[in-house]
Amino acid sequence: MFTKREKKSGVEVLSTDIELRNENDIIFGNPKAELSVIVFGNYSCKFCSKFFKEVLPVLLKEYKDGIKFVLKPVPFSDTKEEMDALQMAVSVFKYGNYESFHELLLKDSNVIYDKNYQEYILEIMNLNQAIADNFLDDETRLYIERNRSLFKDLKLKGTPTFIVDHKILSGYLDIKKFEEIINNSLKD
């Protein structure tokens, strides 16, 4: 595990090279892109939402096939509704139309507590058995719990937290800052 961190030029860097990726991660952009940006995030986080709405679409358009953003969903609470929403996000990404589900959660993160949302989840599962099976699989819940443990093990402070070339970048970053980080990473 990444237990050692050090500072280089004022930026925290993970000192061990370990694979952060997991087959359950949600990927935005080209899955085969060389540059990966790991995003620890949660739909309930207003800064994550701002990133997903304002920054991510611009960067995906600008860098096209050269970059992928890898979302590692991290629960804020132990509520059934939040865990179900994150499990459903993983399941829909793997077997359904993630873009519309993603947009729903971005529109209002509190939708997960609405009765209509619960009916929507059941409808999705009735229409797509693969989504239902993945949602009900304990491995999906364990994956989300492992994300939370990794977040804590890395001593990350809040969401969004980004890891680019083993550099830890905490908090919301605007487009200009991201362009600088990405361009520097692509040069290396």
Automatic annotation (TrEMBL):
A Pfam family reported for this protein in Swiss-Prot or TrEMBL: Thioredoxin_4
Signal peptide boundaries: none
Sequence ranges assigned to domain Thioredoxin in this UniProt record: 1-187
Name this polypeptide is given: Thioredoxin domain-containing protein
Species per Swiss-Prot/TrEMBL record: Plebeiibacterium sediminum
Lineage: Bacteria, Pseudomonadati, Bacteroidota, Bacteroidia, Marinilabiliales
